[in-house]
Amino acid sequence: MEIGRLTVVPDRQGQGLGSQLLIAVEGRLPPTVRELRLFTGEHSEANLRLYARSVTARRAASQRRRATP
């Protein structure tokens, strides 16, 4: 599945809405979806940071699940 150009209006940026949108999307994905691709411009620094945080958080959660007996 692909997501392109996830945006938050400028006057609402910096309030965690982008993160909340990603969490909401992920929570509604069918269980058969194994990969989610996010697209943004290479100069969209805020989007790149958001996506990097999201990936890091998912990896950490996945590692914790695997480490739990």
How is this structure best described in words?
The protein has 69 residues and is mostly helical. It is built from two helices and two strands; from the N terminus they run E-H-E-H. It is globular. The N and C termini lie far apart (31 Å).
List keywords for this structure.
69 residues, mainly alpha, 9% strand, two-stranded parallel ribbon
Concise account of the structure shown:
By secondary structure, this protein is mostly helical. It has 2 helices and 2 strands, in the order βαβα.
Radius of gyration, CA atoms, in whole angstroms: 13 Å
> Beta-strand percentage?
5-15%
Tally of DSSP β-strands: 2
The structure class reads mainly alpha
- What is the distance, rounded to the nearest whole angstrom, between the alpha carbons of the first and last residues? 31 Å
Which ranges are low-confidence, i.e. pLDDT below 50, for 5 or more consecutive residues? none
Largest sheet: 2 strands, parallel
> H/E order of the elements?
EHEH
Taking all residues together, what is the mean pLDDT?
A: 79
Secondary-structure map:
Blueprint: E1 2-4, H1 17-27, E2 37-39, H2 45-67
Parallel strand pairs: 1-2
